[in-house]
Amino acid sequence: MVETANHQHPQGPPPAPLQPLGGARGPLFAPNEQFQHLQYCIHSNPRWVETFILGFQHYIVMLGTTVLIASILVPKMGGSHGDEARVIQTLLFMAGLNTLVQTMIGTRLPTVMSASFAYVIPVLAIINDISDETFTSEHQRFLHTMRTIQGSLIVSSFVNIVLGFSKAWGRLTRLFSPVVLVPVICVVGLGLFQRGFPQVANCVWIGLPMLIILVITQYLKRIIPMSHVILERYGLLICIGIVWAFAAILTVAGAYNHVKEATKQSCRTDRSFLMSSAPWIKIPYPFQWGTPIFRASHVFGMLGAALVTSAESTGTFFAASRLAGATPPPSHVLNRSIGIQGLGTLLEGIFGSVVGTTASVENVGLLGLTHIGSRRVVQISTSFMIFFSIFGKFGAFFASIPLPIFAAIYCVLFGFVAAVGISFMQFANPNSLRNHYVLGLSLFLGISIPQYFVMNTDMNTGHGPIRTGGGWI
């Protein structure tokens, strides 16, 4: 029998809607393609004075990684403080050129292209391999090592060039669904945890106050509405100035006179020796260290690092697109950007940089911290990179900022980028157990596997956990 329309149903109050999880704690928000709190997006620009101050802030943020890489590698190569200053100048000069090209021709996103940590282990392996050779002086050993690194960088650059301009990388990135982007971007931020609090702990006297003040400024801008704009846009520079001055006072007062030498190196403001050793004017030029040396056994490690930077830059580009209010980069843009990144690494090898280039994660985090995703701001920052790379004494002044101050900044900025990666989950099904499986496995292994190699790699020699007769492995 068919039920008729006249059939009477018992009347009663409609069922109460189910209370969502956490509904008592606040409202629910619908997914948004773009962040709603950006004050300037990729095509809108602040006033020129603000643009230059914000550009200088981007320069300061990327400077920490540059100085850290040079301070790790150059002494192991036999270089002096003067050599370290010249390496920093070269890295800054190439970062300025690569950033300008990437923002004008590549992705055209507000991303800074700076020195990559992915190349540190291969470079350490080269340094260790050359350490057995005999040289007339430490400076000669430094020059020979630099020429060998140059040759390896030149060859490895063709990995990015081929992947990009052959359109192979774009075909791969077409498979990047939101579920894939979450671990890609999260690991880009979280995978750099060793440059965060472990470096802060090298000098808790200045690293910890810097981290605390950075967090407090985020609350002060809400408590004091008049200071909201200043603390939001320039709070990072204000914090650096306060803690840097505090570090200088502690240095002059003799607070570090009876501590370990490693602590002095991290805490004192007069331990970099860059001001006294940097030249007043020095323009980096091609093959400034000599003719590159090509050795097959040294190239393989660099090839792996070049492949890593392709994935690292891709995740950073997607994070930058969200923080700049831009659409996600399509495959043809990623092809072009990775190819241009390869050309940048080629120039790094020609000009004599100690490592290759990648998209700077910390500078992308700064876009979110300041709520300003303007491309012009990043392009203006290249003028500071190039200027301070040529006029070495001025650049050395800012390069002498103690590294724990930068490490405290990275604790905030790297975490910001990782959080942006999590935000991509709103475009996927958060209740799918399959998605949970993919995310959990990718995030855990993405952090756990590199940690295995870090724990089993001798940072002094570059030897990893694989023990074979072939050094290239």
In short:
By secondary structure, this protein is mainly α.
Give an account of the 3D structure.
With 473 residues, the protein is mainly alpha-helical. It has one domain. The chain is 63% helix and 1% strand. It has a two-stranded antiparallel ribbon with strand order 1-2. The longest helix has 29 residues. The chain is globular, with a radius of gyration of 25 Å. Belongs to the nucleobase:cation symporter-2 (NCS2) (TC 2.A.40) family. It is a multi-pass membrane protein.
Q: Count all strands and give the number.
A: 2
User: What is the alpha-carbon Rg in Å?
Assistant: 25 Å
Q: Give the overall pLDDT as a whole number.
A: 88
The class by helix and strand makeup works out as mainly alpha
Number of helices: 18
Total tally of structural domains:
1
Following the backbone from N to C, one meets helices and strands in this order, namely HHEHHHHHHHHHHHEHHHHH
| Largest sheet, spatial ordering of strands | 1-2
Helix percentage range: 55-70%
Beta-strand residue fraction: under 5%
